[in-house]
């Protein structure tokens, strides 16, 4: 999944989600009924995992590099 479009329709707790391929062509459209679209939650979880990995690598480097 290369690009995602997120639009807020005029209705509360609804989201128009459109997934685009690398050429920018629409490959999937959906309407989500939720207070926050699942796409945002997934992105946050991914960022938290990456940050955790970076923190572990930094700790490892701190122990391996002589001072």
UniProtKB/TrEMBL annotation:
Residues 11-59 form the HupH hydrogenase expression protein C-terminal domain. InterPro entries: HupH_Hydgase_express_prot_C (IPR006894). This is HupH hydrogenase expression protein C-terminal domain-containing protein.
């Amino acid at each position: 999944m290369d690009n995602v479009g997120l639009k807020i329709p005029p209705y509360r707790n609804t989201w128009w989600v459109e997934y685009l391929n690398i050429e920018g062509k629409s490959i999937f459209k959906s309407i989500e009924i939720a207070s926050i679209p699942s796409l945002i939650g997934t992105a946050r979880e991914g960022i938290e995992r990456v940050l955790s990995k970076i923190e572990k690598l930094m700790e490892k480097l701190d122990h391996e590099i002589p001072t």
